[in-house]
User: Fold this.
Amino acid sequence: MKTLKRFVLVGAPASGKGTQSSFLSESYDLKPLSTGALLRAEVAAGSPLGLEAKKYMDAAMFVPDEVVNGIVSQWLGNNKDCGCLLDGYPRTVAQAQTLDENLAKLGLGVDIVVFLNVSQELIEARMLRRKACPVCGETTRNGEEVCPKCGAGMIVRSDDNPEAFAKRRKDYESLTLPVVEHYRAQGKVVQIDVTEEGEPEAVSARIAAAVAAYVG
Ligand code: ADP
Assistant:
């Protein structure tokens, strides 16, 4: 039976990755690192790193590998002994190679990659239903016309506009899907195919079953 300490979660934008990241970290007692959330916090704090990252994030581009690799390797060095979940990293094969090298230096490695493979049709349908309130910031998933919190008219989220979303999707397919193949070659990928809309808990249950089967 394998011991799983270092998880990587891969999924397209709007795949429900955030929800499943919470599920995984709670179920397997993992400390999560979301590079997207960490970068947004740096942007909000106005740090030099945040100012650099913002240029790329505003343009829906990946932040350069050196910048992200630096943050993650520091975090991993500080968290050698805990179980951890990397969410949103590695996003390119170059990041995956750096991660493997940095972990190897610590005598560690990636133990499992959970690949949330949601069909393109489902993601497009979700995007159309995802709305944000321009007044209070509430977000909803069912195409609401009126904000359930403050009654203002709902709009489509600014980062869900079709152009930005299409760019994020294209980068995911050309740059991030090869990361899955990198780890598939190492026999570390557990793939969850989602083709029909359902409850997030049902996907979590499938992930738990697939992880249990992987552990043996
Ligand atoms: P999404 O998966 O919806 O694009 P994230 O919160 O994961 O959202 O990331 C938001 C932004 O942060 C990305 O569009 C990118 O600019 C930047 N980012 C996050 N993680 C990485 C990474 N590993 N490499 C490069 N850029 C990243």
Remarks:
- Residues 13, 35-36, 39, 56-57, 60-63, 68, 88-89, 91, 95, 168 surround adenosine-5'-diphosphate (CB under 6 Å).
- Helices lie at 17-27, 35-45, 48-58, 65-78, 93-105, 120-129, 162-184, 200-215.
